[in-house]
Amino acid sequence: MSKTVIQTSDINIKIGLNEEKLPVRIDWDAADNPAGGQVAKAMLLSLFDDESKETLKIDLWTNDMQVMEMDRFFFQTLRGLTDTYFRATQNAEMAADMQRFVHYFGEKTGIIEPTKK
Description:
Helix content: 25-40%
Structural class: alpha+beta
Largest sheet: 3 strands, antiparallel
Radius of gyration: 18 Å
Number of domains: 2
Number of helices: 2
Low-confidence stretches: none
Strand order of the largest sheet: 1-2-3
Order of helices and strands: EEEEEHH
């Protein structure tokens, strides 16, 4: 696979802060997003630094993000991370363990119905 860059795309994130410097609005857009700018209540951004081998993170949520919304946000994020992990590593055993936790999390937070035994 070539490492030659043939195209770039910009993703812009603007955080609106209140007088206490807490996030009250998250706006984002991407150069190739046909929907244009969008508003979000929360974001998780993780970047893996090639040199330090550390993950750099920015986790923000607006002050009107409710706990049940945060539960759903994390459930969907964990589910997506599990799928991404499997696609990247093909480690089916670990991905299955992660999926079991995601299911547990979903049940405990009321996002999904408990499995009937």
